[in-house]
Design brief:
It is an enzyme of class 5 (isomerase). Keywords: Isomerase. This is Putative glucose-6-phosphate 1-epimerase. This protein has a single domain, classed as Beta-galactosidase, Chain A, domain 5 (Distorted Sandwich), CATH 2.70.98. The chain is 4% helix and 49% strand. A 9-stranded antiparallel beta sheet has the order 6-7-8-9-21-18-17-12-15, with no helix packed on it.
Length: 279
């Protein structure tokens, strides 16, 4: 039996999606933030810190934070932009063709315009069924001047042990090592994590695969030109107040992103990016 409804999640209103086959997802209205995805017959696929903060002004550690219109501190705006710490509106929730579908929207307002004088509308569409979830990010320029932005879906993937995980699909891709301030090319056919990592890869277009013993998760991107791979490592996790020190081994961020070259959208036009996760 399927149902889609608003629920309470950690004291916050959330859109709960349940497909007819039983796969589920939960999206906070705060930040348009996906905090849970449980595919058909499997366990939770996203990492969510047990010590994260919720509510006004907070950014949830884990799940899938929405980064817009600025990535990290690469610009004059607040870190990671304007939408991850503000309330969104649920505008649609249906079951259609065996899929659970939910749409959230954030429109620029007096508060955002005071920080960044650009009118926009941002929609996230979540569609899930079986072992797959699709997240579509659509940005519409509702202003009168060109809209330049960077963006990312900052996806925290759950790992049993990141030290034993491998990420495939980045071979020959050029990347920026943000920890060292250097530029390199990925030569190995797999990427392994042995400590802190913060890299921005130029996406080659091929699917990525996160592998662990007994588990495989495929990541497909469309419209996103970059892939960010991030893990804070032991020292970095110890410096984070909203994440247990040992939990760095339980996650790996593999982010659909447009970071190195801003996207430009003309007035009344739209840009769309899609991230598909399957396991």
């Amino acid at each position: 039996m399927s149902d889609i409804k608003l629920v309470d999640f950690q004291g916050q209103p959330a859109l709960r999606l349940r497909a007819p086959d039983g796969s589920t997802a939960i999206v906070l209205l705060h930040g348009g933030h996906l905090v849970s995805w449980v595919p058909l017959g499997q366990g939770e696929q996203l990492y969510l810190s047990p010590t994260t903060r919720y509510g006004a002004g907070s950014s949830v550690r884990g799940g899938m934070p929405v980064i817009f219109p600025q990535f990290n501190t690469r610009g004059p705006l607040p870190r990671h932009g304007l939408v991850r710490t503000r309330g969104w509106q649920a505008v649609e929730s249906v079951v259609r063709g065996g899929h659970a579908l939910g749409v959230l929207r954030f429109d620029s307002n007096a508060e955002t315009l005071a920080i960044w004088p650009q009118a926009f509308s941002l929609e996230l569409t979540f569609s899930l069924a079986g072992n797959t979830i699709e997240i579509e990010m659509a940005v519409t320029n509702t202003g009168e001047t060109p809209l330049d932005f960077t963006a990312a879906l900052h996806t925290y993937l759950r790992c049993n042990d990141v030290l034993k995980a491998q990420l495939e699909g980045l071979q020959t891709c050029a990347y920026e090592d943000c920890l060292k301030g250097e530029f390199h090319q990925q030569w190995g056919d797999v990427l392994s994590v042995i400590g802190p990592i913060d890299r921005i890869y130029r996406h080659s277009g091929q699917p990525l695969v996160l592998r662990e013993l007994g588990r495989k998760l495929e990541i497909k991107l469309d419209g996103f030109e970059d892939v960010v791979v991030w893990n804070p490592g032991a020292e970095g996790a110890a410096a984070l107040p909203d994440m247990p020190d040992a939990d760095w081994t339980q996650m790996l961020c593999v982010e659909a992103a447009c970071v190195r070259e801003p996207i430009t959208v003309m007035p009344d036009d739209e840009w769309v990016g899609l991230q598909t996760l399957s396991c």
